[in-house]
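Lab notebook: predicted structure, single chain.

Context: the supervisor wants predicted structures on file for every construct in the current expression panel, including those that have not yet been purified. This is the next one on the list. No modifications to the sequence; it matches the entry in the shared construct table.
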Amino acid sequence: MGQPVVHFEVMGKDGPGLREYYSELFGWEFSSPAPDAEGMDYEVTGGNAPDGSGIGGGVGGLPEGEGEPSAKAESLGGKRAMGPIEIMDEVVIGQFLDPEGNLIGVVKPGEM
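Prediction complete. Output recorded below exactly as produced.
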């Protein structure tokens, strides 16, 4: 069993724009633990991985309802960087650049 992801950061100049992008892409909800963290726009999103799940294959998951991991990212203004590539039985990976240029990996898991 792997260790859960407990912290990650996505950097950018347009905090509100990135919050909207990831909220629409992954359904993440955000809250501000420190409204003024020394000039940083810092937001928190809760984890939703099942207990005991490992890190998996990327920072994000698969956008809901998408057959191709990077398709929704592109429709929201991201750019495809790699894929989709089937790496194992029905496991498909892809990477995209968000509107700020951050490289994010997505995974469509196969049947387990």
